[in-house]
Amino acid sequence: MPKGKRTRIVALTRTRKKGLDSKKKLMDDLRSCLEDYERVFVFSVRDMRNAKLKDMRTKWRTSRFFFGKNKVMAIALGRTAEEEQADGLHKLSKALRGQCGLMFTNSAKDDVVDFFGKYVEADYARAGAVATDDVALEEGPLPDFPHSVEPYLRLKLGLKTTLNRGVVTLLKPHIVCRKGERMTPEQTRLLKLMNHPMAEFRVNLVAVWSKDGVVERLNPDADGEEDEEEEGSGAEDDAEDMDSD
Question: What does the pLDDT look like over 119-176, one tens digit per residue?
């Protein structure tokens, strides 16, 4: 029987990009928050992790966090003195560069600065990250690894291993990574199996706006380094995740 003309093969990997409705909602939410909060911080994130961002939001339940396209957030606040939604906001918009977000809060500026100055969460490095120290495995038994992981170590991660009476045993020394070198996916997976974090999730406060119209630059060196076209990539999803109840 001939194949029907209506038959179509649809790739399940296709996703529909968010359009104007999503951008308009983000802008409306930002403008609404300007009425409810005394301060707005621009922050950048080092070693982005969505789970860590959600944990951070939990610690600041009375505040709101947004992580979206920089251009959209800048338009919402106002890019010029004529467009700004409140006095001084166009100066804050200029700080929206690279991978960054907005925090709306009624907390005192010093309390916010003090908290994020100390807030650091260790995490596992991702492929492409630079190793912070030398890590090596010595020849001999590796009792910290369960026996079930031995084939994975040998076949996927390239270690010379065997099982000796049920204990994973390394047949020759293995350099996991060297300080200052960028790591491969195999190296980062091995570090995770070793429970050896090499990344630090931290939030850098870039600038703050207060309702009196004053904008203060907090950390000019914290600006993101990503290209303008890539800034905030995929961030609108994060904004919804972080601010949904």
Answer: 888 889 999 999 999 999 999 999 999 999 999 999 999 999 999 999 999 999 999 9
Domain over 135-193 is classified CATH 3.90.105.20: yes
DSSP-assigned letters across all residues of the chain: -PPPTT-----TT--PPP-HHHHHHHHHHHHHHHHH-SEEEEEEEES--HHHHHHHHHHTTTSEEE---HHHHHHHH-SSTTT-SSTTHHHHHTT--SSEEEEEE-S-HHHHHHHHHH-EEEE---TTPBPSS-EEE-SEE-TTS-GGGHHHHHHTS---EEEETTEEEESS-EEEE-TTSBPPHHHHHHHHHTT---EEEEEEEEEEEETTS-EEE--GGG---S-TTTTTTTHHHHHHHHH--
Q: What CATH homologous superfamily does 20-124+200-243 map to?
A: Ribosomal protein L10, N-terminal RNA-binding domain (3.30.70.1730)
Report whether pLDDT(98) > 50.
yes
What pLDDT, on the 0 to 100 scale, is given for residue 236? 38
What residue segments make up the domains of the chain, in order of their start? Answer: 20-124+200-243, 135-193
